[in-house]
Each structure stands twice: as structure tokens, then as C-alpha cells.
Write a structure and sequence with these properties.
The protein is of the alpha/beta class and about 450 residues long. It is built from seven helices and 23 strands. One of its GO terms (biological process) is pollen tube growth.
């Protein structure tokens, strides 16, 4: 049996070797253009010496050809990736003085993916329009190329097949061109950490296949267009760290597939936490920190049991932390409520499964009473709340972050109660009421509730 397996292996190797020698060579224009590109990106490497043969038979990592299904078909370069990422993906490295004539890419009529990582850091690279990438291009990815200085509109030529547009950490500037709405095959548009300005074009709402829209870390402004609600397949919407204003449009309730929403650190106005969030049960991560939303935390959590991370920091929130957050947000692993004006007790059922909760710099009060089991796996930040104190009777060690709290005295406000379920909710409400009742009234209430 082993001999037969060896025979099959040798037969397969011989067949592949024979096919490789019968395969027509790569088109010479593609071969020469790729030599020119490699030399421009890194002239210190002797590319012609290292790779003297057909690039489709022997090529550096990141150069991918298609494999013809018939012997007489000519191969084509379909993927080009440049810039060392890791040992697992050792693409051709770019030198510190890398430059490039992008018109060379017209030599690759079957190119599907073009990728540049950390290639253009010193010598300014400007795309001179009209720039025409191959119409076959499906993925265009430029990451961390800060000297890539060009209007974003200069890229949008002949890209009707484009599925993924990822431009992160470059120096593209100008407005997001309205013609982007004409590339109906787009599934991802990530334009984060550039120098884009202006407003979001309403034409983005035409991209019915879009699953990811990330425009974070730019200088975009104005109101969000209602047309974004037409993106019914959208999974991620990240518009953080811009200067968007106006009101967060209620039309976003139409994003029925949305899992990730980040609108943090913009200038959205004082209309409170949007109530429509409670109508998007697919949400897993929500970040609204650093806006001017203010108001009380609304009761919208019943349908948001899948939320795992929630950022509501630095928003001017007032009032109590709703007990319902602890009842329904059972999957929560992070909650940011710091730098607000919240008061009252803390319903620690919020993170009964552990995780991180940041309540720093509010006006919260009451006893912090965590069991040892919960305390060991819960990262709790409570500095800047003078009304909170630590109840040592629970057996939770007072070191670490909890060590910032003073020990509770007998005269301190009663416990902020750990709860799970409706009966616990009743107990929490009852004990809160007891704070302001006399001894007789308190005794009557205790007898009535059975506490």
C-alpha cells in the first residue's frame, strides 16, 4: 500500500512538472511591469537576479497568478501585495524611499487585488488623474502609507467590480465622492484615519450589498443622511472621531442587521441616548461616548440582551443607572459610564459574569458589596465618587481598584443590592425607599414585601 502511495505521488509530481513546462509563459508586458514596480518599491533588492524566470512559475510572496484550466491558456497575475506584514505573510518589503508610477497597473487586465502596507512613508506620492485601475479589480487596500497624498476622488475611475475598498492611515483628502454610490458591488468601505472632509454623500445609501462602513478618524462634518438606513445588510457602522453634528437620525432603526455601532467623539446634539437603539436587537457593541447627548439613561434594554460592550462615557448623563440594565444586559463584558453626572446607587447585577465597568467621576453613592467570586473577575473603576464606600463584610478583598474606596460606616447609605430577576428588582426598589422612611414606616414596608 505504501509503495502504491509513493507511485501516485511520483506520478502527480511528474504530471505537474510536465504541465508547468507546457503552460504558456506570462505575458511579457506583465513580467516587465512587475520588475519595474518591484524596483521602484525597493531598489536595494536584485529582483531580476532573484526571480529571473516567469513570475507565474516562481515569484515572491504576494504575487499570485491564476491557474489556467486548459493547457494552452496564458496565465495572468491576479493579486499583488506589497509591504512586509509578518513572517506569515512576507510580502516584498518597501524601502524608505519607495516610489511608484501607478499607471503601470494598467498592464494587469485581470488583477483582482492590490495591497500596499507601510510602503510610502517619506517620499510624497500623488495620484495624477485620470488614473485608471483595471476594471477587474475587486479589492483595493492601502494601509499606513502617510505620504500617500492625493484626493480620494482620484481613485474612483473604472472600479465597477470593486467589492472591498480599504484605505486606512493614509493621507487621502477631500470629500467622499458621490460617485461611490455607483459601485454597487461594494461590500466594505473603510476609509479610516485619513484627512477626509465634508459631508457623507447620500449616494452611499445605494450600496445595498454593503456590510462594513468605517469613516472613523477623519474631519467629516454635517448631519448623517437618512439614506444610510437603506443599508439593510450593514453589520458595522463606525463614524467615530469626526465632527458630525445635528441629531442622530432615528432612521437608523432601519439597520436591522447592525451589530457594531460607533458614533463616539463627535458633536451630536443634546437629544439623549437614542431610543431607537432598543429596536435593533442585533446590536453587540454600541459606543456613543464623547457627544453632547445628555439626559437620563433611558429604559430601552429589554431587547438588547446581546449587547456585549457599551460605551456611554463623557456625555453629560444625569440621574440613576437603570436597574433594568442589570436585568437584561446579561452578556455585557464592558460598560463605560465614566465622566458623567450620574447619581444614586449602583446595581451591580450589571456585570455579574465579570468584565470591566468604569463608573469614575460621577456622583454615585451607597455601599459597594461584591462577593469574592465576582470581585476576582470584575475590573471595577469607581474613583471620583465620594458617596461610594466599600462593605468589607462580603469577603471581597479591598485591594486593587476597590482599595480607592473608604470603608463603610454604620451610618452610610444602605447597600446597592446585587440582584438577578424580578424579585431582586423588588428588593432593590424597596431598600431604596427605606432610606427616606422612618422606623415605623420601614417596618410596615418590610412586613409587606417579606424582606
Amino acid at each position: 500500500m505504501a509503495v502504491f502511495a509513493i507511485f501516485l505521488s511520483l506520478l502527480l509530481t511528474t504530471t505537474l512538472f510536465s504541465l508547468s513546462h507546457q503552460q504558456p509563459p506570462l505575458d511579457s508586458s506583465q513580467q516587465q511591469s512587475l520588475y519595474h514596480i518591484l524596483h521602484s518599491l525597493n531598489p536595494t533588492v536584485p529582483w531580476r537576479t532573484l526571480f529571473p524566470d516567469d513570475f507565474c512559475l516562481s515569484a515572491p510572496h504576494g504575487v499570485v497568478c491564476d491557474y489556467p484550466t486548459q493547457l494552452n491558456q496564458t496565465p495572468h497575475i491576479v493579486e499583488l501585495s506589497f509591504g512586509y506584514v509578518s513572517d506569515e505573510t512576507p510580502n516584498p518589503p518597501c524601502s524608505s524611499n519607495a516610489t511608484l508610477n501607478f499607471h503601470l497597473f494598467t498592464s494587469f487586465p485581470y488583477l483582482r487585488k492590490l495591497f500596499f502596507y507601510n510602503c510610502f512613508n517619506h517620499t510624497p506620492i500623488t495620484l495624477s488623474p485620470p488614473l485608471s485601475f483595471p476594471s477587474s479589480l475587486e479589492e483595493l487596500v492601502f494601509i499606513n502609507n502617510p505620504s500617500f497624498i492625493s484626493p480620494l476622488a482620484s481613485l474612483f475611475q473604472n472600479l465597477t467590480s470593486l467589492r472591498r475598498l480599504i484605505l486606512i492611515g493614509n493621507a487621502f483628502h477631500g470629500e467622499v465622492p458621490s460617485q461611490i454610490g455607483g459601485f454597487l458591488n461594494l461590500e466594505e468601505v473603510t476609509l479610516s484615519r485619513n484627512n477626509l472632509s465634508g459631508e457623507i454623500p447620500a449616494s452611499l445609501g445605494l450600496l445595498k450589498k454593503l456590510k462594513v462602513l468605517d469613516l472613523s478618524g477623519n474631519k467629516l462634518e454635517g448631519c448623517l443622511p437618512d439614506s444610510l438606513a437603506n443599508l439593510s445588510r450593514l453589520l458595522k457602522l463606525d463614524l467615530s472621531f469626526n465632527t458630525f453634528g445635528c441629531r442622530i437620525p432615528e432612521s437608523l432603526r432601519g439597520l436591522r442587521s447592525l451589530e457594531f455601532l460607533d458614533l463616539s467623539f463627535n458633536r451630536f446634539g443634546s437629544f439623549g441616548v437614542p431610543l431607537f437603539l432598543g429596536e435593533v436587537p442585533t446590536l453587540k457593541e454600541v459606543y456613543l461616548s464623547g457627544n453632547f447627548l445628555s439626559g437620563a439613561i433611558p429604559e430601552i434594554w429589554e431587547n438588547l440582551g446581546g449587547v456585549e460592550r457599551l460605551g456611554l462615557s463623557e456625555m453629560g448623563l444625569v440621574g440613576n443607572i437603570p436597574v433594568s440594565m442589570g436585568m437584561y444586559l446579561k452578556n455585557l463584558s464592558f460598560l463605560g459610564l465614566d465622566k458623567n453626572n450620574l447619581d444614586g446607587p449602583v446595581p451591580f447585577g450589571l456585570l455579574e459574569n465579570g468584565g470591566e465597568i468604569n463608573l469614575e467621576n460621577n456622583n454615585l453613592s451607597g455601599r459597594v458589596a461584591l462577593s469574592r467570586r465576582v470581585g476576582q473577575k470584575l475590573k471595577l473603576k469607581v474613583a471620583g465618587n465620594r458617596g461610594l464606600c466599600l462593605d468589607n463584610k462580603t469577603g471581597c478583598e479591598s485591594g486593587g481598584v476597590l482599595g480607592q474606596l473608604k470603608a463603610c460606616k454604620k451610618t452610610d447609605v444602605p447597600d446597592a443590592v446585587v440582584f438577578s430577576g424580578a424579585s431582586s428588582l423588588l428588593r432593590f426598589d424597596s431598600l431604596t425607599l427605606l432610606v427616606g422612611l422612618g422606623s415605623v414606616a420601614a417596618g410596615v414596608l418590610l412586613a409587606f414585601t417579606g424582606l
